[in-house]
Prior knowledge:
This protein is mainly α. Strands 1-2 form a two-stranded parallel ribbon. It has helices spanning 7-13, 19-39, 51-62, 64-95, 101-107, 116-127, 132-141, 156-181, 184-192, 197-226, 229-234, 239-249, 253-280, 300-331, 339-373, 376-386, 393-413, 424-448, 452-460, 465-494, 497-502, 510-519, 523-551, and strands at residues 96-97, 296-297.
Amino acid sequence: xxxxxxxxxxxxxxxxxxxxxxxxxxxxxxxxxxxxxxxxxxxxxxxxxxxxxxxxxxxxxxxxxxxxxxxxxxxxxxxxxxxxxxxxxxxxxxxxxxxxxxxxxxxxxxxxxxxxxxxxxxxxxxxxxxxxxxxxxxxxxxxxxxxxxxxxxxxxxxxxxxxxxxxxxxxxxxxxxxxxxxxxxxxxxxxxxxxxxxxxxxxxxxxxxxxxxxxxxxxxxxxxxxxxxxxxxxxxxxxxxxxxxxxxxxxxxxxxxxxxxxxxxxxxxxxxxxxxxxxxxxxxxxxxxxxxxxxxxxxxxxxxxxxxxxxxxxxxxxxxxxxxxxxxxxxxxxxxxxxxxxxxxxxxxxxxxxxxxxxxxxxxxxxxxxxxxxxxxxxxxxxxxxxxxxxxxxxxxxxxxxxxxxxxxxxxxxxxxxxxxxxxxxxxxxxxxxxxxxxxxxxxxxxxxxxxxxxxxxxxxxxxxxxxxxxxxxxxxxxxxxxxxxxxxxxxxxxxxxxxxxxxxxxxxxxxxxxxxxxxxxxxxxxxxxxxxxxxxxxxxxxxxxxxxxxxx
Length: 553
């Protein structure tokens, strides 16, 4: 028995709008509210006193150009170092065979478990004047203060290097996949024509991997521009620090929103550049991949060079920071696993758990609606939801607080008090706006693997849309749903800018307390919550590393 083509869609399109489409539209509106709230203040003139316009004019005339320059300078360092490290390591492990290659294939993604602000705290303790490195140099050579030069970690260059150390895996993962998926015949043809490994890499492999590498660099730059914890601790004024300075120092939400709009436009420009870069050229992998390319064996100095090149980012981006944190925890007398620590852990886990649960339920409905309705409006709604991850947490926080503060002002006039501002619900809302895209993409990828013929068979057996989701698709989706929930859980644990701005009074999480302790130069006390964040973030990274190791066997 065969169903008429498009019968399900025709039944849905007749009469009223499908409930799943209404849910998707509501979610898209909720995700878009913070963005609209920020952009609506771009040309605002401030409050009745004009303080908003005056403050922003003052910022533009004095410090805003510096914010832009510093943000772009850090982004340039990350693009160069992260691109070179990610693409170089991906090419080595995909094309060559050398000692330790199997370990490096998965170990190179370990820095993803390290939040940038945690690495910043660790290296500051390690490299500052009273740290072990400079203390050892003075003890060895008998130097005194100001008798020698040592690079300053709290600088634009230091911030750029820290971001590159923890964000290069974005480039590595995408570039490695691109190198592995190219046809080996193209490489063989280049070598037959007399091209050496370096020339074949520059003229064949790199052009094929260029779209993936650019996409990875764009992801790394988005994370760089969205960061607050590391640049604030280093004392480097950027757009994100300018948002907080306007909000807290000047108490001017209009200027904060205007700076947030500038940051949002910078992120949007970055996305357009990435898409335009891919759109100007097309590189296709021609030929079958049924024959896998045999890796070229490296020996002698070349093998040593490959090992050092791949080991360096793992060493400086993961092993050294973890070792520094363990050293701080071991030597700090004030470290305690007491009630306060468990309170921070409980708050973090509670927020992350609630957000992850809501995210997977919403994203299952969104992905299933896209499968069932197949309407253009549904596609637009899902694209709006996917935009959230590209929006920095500081921008989302400002975009949420502006409408919520107006609603609370309205409720206060009617004697209801402050209901939304500074509530856990507002914080969960910010998390969902920021991380729904992560969950949606994961669930959508799992759902697309389920053949449409299973839907047709279920309909023949009398299953409706809801029954088909629960009894047919859900058992097949549980791995994707679990992965989506895990990714959102870890992202919420690590999130700092939105949490720092929206959290309820006297409600601290591991990320917030780590930042506050480090800002007070109590790095020893900050080590324990920071190490806890790393251990939690290590879970999905370990799962990904395990899948890479299994796939390469």
